[in-house]
Design a protein that fits this description.
24 helices, 2 strands, mainly alpha, two-stranded antiparallel ribbon
Amino acid sequence: MTAETNQAEQPDVTAPEADAKVPAYSWYALGVLVIVYVLNFVDRNIISILAEDIKADLGLRDDQIGFLYGTAFGVFYALFGIPLGKLADNWHRIRLMTAGLFIWSAFTALSGFAKSFTALSVARIGVGVGEATASPSAYSLISDWFPKKMRATALAIYSSGLYIGGGISLLIGGAIVENWNEAYPVDAPLGLAGWQAAFIAVGLPGILLACLVFTLREPLRGQSDGIITPPAKDPFRGFARELVAVIPPFTLIGAAQAGPKGIATNLAGMLVIGGAAYALAVATGSYQQWIAVGIGYYAIFSWASTLKRRDEAAFKLIWGTPAFLTTILGYGMVAFMSYAASFWAAPYAIRILGEAPSTAGFWIGGPGALGGFLGVILGGAAADYLRKRNPAGRLLVVAFGLVGAAPFLFLMFTTESTLVFYVAAFFQSVFGSSALGGAAATSQDLVLPRMRGTATATFFLSTTLVGLALGPYMAGQVSTLSESLSTGGLSLLIAVPIGLVLLLVAYRTVPEAERTLIERARAAGEDV
């Protein structure tokens, strides 16, 4: 039994009633979480419609804009997701989400006062740290509010906030920046440009929403699976240990606890990852991008090494299970395309097709939100339907989302017709979003209830350090080098063959991994 497991009493294994109805409160709580996730993506994605104004005002390049949207946010979102995921596994998840919502909303508002690339980068990092609390807490809460048979549907409903928020951000951002600049061509209040006013306008409401989230009731951990897990006696101990394990240079302290071999392994990983990051920085000239990515990948290497020593069962069920890894990395390729396509859509419409920000925001944001909502809900329902007939059936939906989105992405970045562009953007959103529910539910099914926060944080590594930190930046870098945003967008199609190979491996290994879950956990020392 692990040290963390010893902090609490042995789980109470009680089979839930198969036909038990979902309480009305669960649906209410899910609705609140959807609103939180909507605001999450409004704050995260609004930079897309503001990109052209920010670029002109601060004198930035496309690769720097891609860095602000993806890497500056995504790397720190991923890193802090690890200790915060651990805290979600051991502490009061409602309080954690409330604090995170307040933090990321405040930093979004502070983005509106940025006057330089560096200041805006720091604000985006703050947004990433705050938002790292949301999904580990929400995924764990939803898995306790809803039974296994409805989990993909419930997670898909929650995830619809991603697409609704992304769409609303374009509608709101485009309208604010255009109206503000028209109303205040000179002598604007506080000297704010339209893009700065937009950040402030979407950041402040989150502070009020945090008060509503605070009123939600915390469910019993593991209740929907019949594995009631009592609260940890010292929840912040695990958080502090994970924080030390994942944040450089304190990672060397964690490595030293494993003796000389641990230090040697950690330093070797640092040198290899650091050398690769330096080579890429020299080759591209984007030092901030590859320093941040290098820090991220080294931190994850250090954390995984420490997790193996501290919690062997969690390590084996997450990092030691090919089914889990190929599932999250396969979905990471979907995120690679989707994040970049959704971000660069508005700049393409404004810069290449000559659309006004408000027009682009309306025709990308509204249909995009609808397409994402339909895709994630239908995809989640289809994933649950196929799961009943095939243990790996959910992964078929993930692969479908990857392949189905590709032709529409191609149309988006090659057409000169605004109508074709907006229609293609809509269907790219539908297909790309359909993969999320199935991938998320599969990752949750491959671990024990006490590990779900950590597993969720690991799942989001694939969407951040692979999808968010690399996709938008790569398209921007290719655009900068080729002086063609169209070429930058088309470069994203490299994700399709890579993702299909990963999902094929997952499809073949998930059924056996799920069937042997308890057996493998016990073999690793877990008392279940």
